[in-house]
Amino acid sequence: MFLLLSLLVAVLPVSTEGGEIMWGTEAKPHSHPYMAFIRYYDIKSNLKRCGGFLVEKDVVITAAQCGGRNISVTLGVHNIKELKNTQPIPVLKVIRHEDYNSEKMVNDIMLLKLKHKAQLNKAVKTIALPKSQEWVKPKQVCTVAGWGKLAGCTLPDKLQEVKLEVQESDVCRKMYKSYDNSTQLCVGNPKEKKATADGDFGGPFVCNGVAQGIVSQHHCTGDLPEVFTRISSFIPWIQKKMKLLQQP
């Protein structure tokens, strides 16, 4: 899931094409109990995976790009090959942001209404959202977890994690033409070479126990930093849609 290039590897041929990530750290089982393992079929009928996070007993937030056919959500997962005692819950309704743009990757946020409420336990818990316009500051170090690609484009069975540093907005403006600091976060120190990858999209960027961002995009060259959706800017939208979801 995550990229960490050491000095030893610097002398070896390394490819980062396609979001290839190396030397991820396996998370302690159920240390991120809010995580949702999401699968769906894309327009070409390819089975894809994403992350998501439980914010209410029956609501998961993920990235809008994770929308497709036959979306499935499983809670309480650490190893996706060992699903005993996990909670697979059908998705009742999908609410993708109306202004999501897949080319510019803006408004990359989506709500999933589950068919029934999750049973909260040590492996399944909700995570707090920030207040509206509550911004994380540059240099702050936060955590991302997911089941995204490892080195060699292999997909891990077990949940991986990494700590990433928030960057100044100017760093992302130089690499991403459509970067908007009011709705997006610039994340990842180029000197550390740690990053997310394909399959991690939709997962939360967690700062002090609060979901502040959503993994959204990385540069086509594999260079850092990356761009995450800034959740605090979407709190009014989330609250509005949550009210709609509560209606019978």
UniProtKB/TrEMBL annotation:
The keyword Hydrolase applies. One of its GO terms (molecular function) is serine-type endopeptidase activity. Pfam families: Trypsin (PF00089). One of its GO terms (biological process) is proteolysis. Residues 21-243 form the Peptidase S1 domain. Keywords: Disulfide bond, Hydrolase, Protease, Serine protease, Signal, Zymogen. Residues 1-18 form the signal peptide. SUPFAM superfamilies: Trypsin-like serine proteases. One of its GO terms (cellular component) is cytoplasm. InterPro entries: Peptidase_S1_PA, Peptidase_S1_PA_chymotrypsin, Peptidase_S1A, Trypsin_dom. This is Mast cell protease 8. It comes from Cricetulus griseus.
